[in-house]
């Protein structure tokens, strides 16, 4: 029987309607020593208002430089069963789909080798197996990989790419987000498992500008589906929305950021040339409005959390690119050029977006062979301090 | 027992093997969808086929006991098919309409919280916290639990002017899109790291430790073969501690959380926005952080009372003005609110127009 700890503080977090993580730890702790000590150490953290986890050491599986986060407790004598408590990241399925039998397979392996505690999912989108000992890492990897599963990314490497639910179950997706995500993951397996970058690199693919995977806020490369044609209007469906209580002028026309929609009570008209494809009208009237024409993605670069220069949102590099999962060679070539430039100039722990800010968009764009276009900026520069190369001067004289 | 043969660089299994047949058949060919209730939506394909989705909350941290229960439920009502959302909810994918109601009934009986679809508070994106992280200065799971308990009705039943996305980060590393959320908690330190000179020598690479500081506060201490920190330049981000374990920064008395608000990632109507500082510090008060819950509740209540339909929290605040926001919330405006980092001058008011 695993040790039972008194947890008066954590017990308070079993009250209330939202499902309790404490109850989850207790369920695992009833039969697992590691989970029991995790509960004990967590109560200590709550009591002392500080963490009791130390920096990770280098642990992992043979041939890989990532996928396992080493974690040690700073009170190993008090909680010996979580003296090591490493996390294993398993690369999840595009769109986070599962079958019952898959989940049971994961549980069987994890009950045998780990704490019985998981995260579905980590922030990046990996299936997180929370807490195991160093000697169990190779067996866990053998059990998963022999069944067709691989580890996710960690450290200064490509992190597990992720995507929105996309064409699997959404009527808005302009691109095959699952297909693209799977293709990118397979193409860059070595970069994912063997850290060789200045810092982490993330791809997030979403089907439209609603961005249900927060791609624009947390991916070094944000792939956002969009279209080049018109928005088809089903006028009967517009009427259906009006009949069901929608104030078309207040809720659709007046909220359009480019004021390209009008409605006279009979027909909804869109001046497509002025549309910036923000998705508001389509998201509110999904039965009435549908994008048509050529579909592809806008490629944006650079978003990340605050370290080191402050948080950034991704910015446009390629306004439109076709994204056929079976033919992404143009995209892969561009990414490899970007990485080459980043490898050459990036400092330790400098994300690619930060490097672009430090060295300038011009150098980056010239290196990857992309021409300047107004879609890349909100506005042109305000200051009079810019560079001229000899070639620039020759062009203007 | 011998272990099976390991394989490397195979990547994840193909997603097609995990999609319900109705999705495989109608992949990329969905016509429209209806939100029937906060926990139920139906997608209709051009073929006329339908798939029902029942969404429930999850604490993200799940035991294998609960995962097995979820698998059993999926088998009973969904031919075994289910998925997770990017906000840690669980979605049961039902192909047979007759099974929707019995599924919801069983989920309710088993105590699952059904909801989160549409103009609701969805589940909270969050980080590891004291569960598992060395740099955590609060517990993320605990804060998520107490906030979602407080906002449970907005997950299950009561709709809002628009969706409200919450996030919790247990340090400024922000493993999650906390910086672009409607309301978010970020845990912070307020004291300079302690330098363990003996350990710096043995555990750390001095040049990379110096280089990692965003404000250039770290310089070499040649005599001690260690580093020095210029206290007045340090803003306690903890980046140096991630690079060099000999610079511990955790401080149970002075660590706590800040509240930021008004961010979003969607492009609808207005551009994606960062969350901005609202409350610079609230002390850690586990297990239920009542002061944090009250402050977040105040923001949400004022948003509900003041926002127009379809306005996100950030769009509402920008319409009324930040000066008005501070007036109606009563949150003190302090030196900490005025940016003095890399984009400071972009945030100053360069107009004579504002509200009293």
Walk me through this protein's architecture.
The complex is a heterodimer of chains A (397) and B (356). Chain A is of the alpha+beta class. Chain A contains 15 helices and 16 strands. In chain A, strands 8-9-10-15-16 form a 5-stranded mixed β-sheet. Chain A has a 4-stranded antiparallel β-sheet with strand order 2-4-7-6. Chain A has a two-stranded antiparallel sheet with strand order 1-3. In chain A, a hairpin with a 4-residue loop joins strand 12 (261-263) and strand 13. Chain A is globular and about 75 Å long. By secondary structure, chain B is an alpha+beta fold. Chain B has 12 helices and 13 strands. Chain B has helices at 21-26, 64-78, 100-109, 140-150, 152-156, 197-203, 206-211, 239-243, 290-306, 313-320, 322-329, 344-347; strands at residues 30-37, 40-45, 50-56, 61-63, 81-84, 90-94, 125-126, 166-169, 183-188, 218-221, 226-229, 256-261, 276-283. The chains are: A alpha+beta (397), B alpha+beta (356). The interface between A and B is large, with 128 and 120 residues.
Question: Summed up, what is this model?
Answer:
Chain A is an alpha+beta fold and 397 residues long.
Present the secondary structure layout.
The complex is a heterodimer of chains A (397) and B (356).
Chain A: H1 8-11, H2 21-29, H3 33-48, E1 53-54, E2 68-69, E3 72-73, E4 86-90, E5 97-99, H4 100-113, E6 117-120, E7 127-132, H5 137-146, E8 162-163, H6 177-187, H7 189-193, E9 203-206, H8 215-218, E10 221-227, E11 231-233, H9 235-243, H10 248-253, E12 261-263, E13 268-270, H11 280-284, E14 289-291, E15 295-301, E16 315-321, H12 329-345, H13 352-359, H14 361-368, H15 390-396
Parallel strand pairs in A: 8-9, 9-10
Antiparallel strand pairs in A: 1-3, 2-4, 4-7, 6-7, 10-15, 11-14, 12-13, 15-16
Helix pairs in contact in A: 2-3, 4-5
Chain B: H1 21-26, E1 30-37, E2 40-45, E3 50-56, E4 61-63, H2 64-78, E5 81-84, E6 90-94, H3 100-109, E7 125-126, H4 140-150, H5 152-156, E8 166-169, E9 183-188, H6 197-203, H7 206-211, E10 218-221, E11 226-229, H8 239-243, E12 256-261, E13 276-283, H9 290-306, H10 313-320, H11 322-329, H12 344-347
Parallel strand pairs in B: 7-8, 8-9
Antiparallel strand pairs in B: 1-2, 2-3, 3-6, 5-6, 9-12, 10-11, 12-13
